[in-house]
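ok so i was messing around last nite and threw this chain in just to see what happens. nothing serious, just curious
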Amino acid sequence: MTVQEINGREITGQETTSRCNTRAQSRAGYSDSKSFFLCCPVKWIICALVTLWTPGLAIGQEKAGKQPADENAAMSAKEDANEKNRVQPGSSPLAQYVTLDETITDQTVTKIRNLSLKLQSDAIQEDRPAYLVIEVRPAASELLQAMRIAKDLTSSNLSRVKTVAWVPQTLTGSHVIVALGCKEIVIQPDAVIGDIGQGKSVELGERQSLLDIIDKRYNPKLSRGLVIGMLDPVSDIRVVTIDRGQDNLEQRVVTREDQQELVRTG
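result:
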């Protein structure tokens, strides 16, 4: 696992829809996800220049049109205006980039937990947004270890940290659970995510632990039915369209039982 600090870059959560092929090998369907970009500092620099330059123009125009009677008062007013409009260094987000491409050990869990809590603490103290980006790649790890990380990522102790999973290649197995524990998932267009049990059904106890996390709606793009499809390759998962009237159509990924309940309740 490698950790890279990326403070100083502008980080945005732009809601550009990516082709997110989140599907289980059973029949879990597809789900779009919000894209997450790490932008270079150029845009931030431009914004800073515009912010600093504009007040200068306004003050210059005022001075040319009307000379203040008290020169000291004019200088003080100019300094106050510049101070109010100055870009504060602390306004840029805090961020850390973690690569998870090896077997998850106790040390891995501890490192990610401590890193996340440090981001949370810094975000509160400096009143700045914070992001934790985890690049998740396939590796052989125990489901319980991946579950420990997912539970930490969805803890209320990280209320100020936005977690984002970046999946650059097809991802199956236990590391899928780590991605499902993040607030957002960004997937490379040709990649697929799912099949947590790698052809086998995940045991009921472990399955329920993950479904409990999903039920929190920490990531609103995920649904219980979608994740069940990832946990059980023989599950009957369906994509249904609900007509709410006035051209308001809603798509859901549900189990067969959920579909029957939707039909029964209208």
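not much to say yet. Residues 5-67 have pLDDT under 50 and may be disordered.
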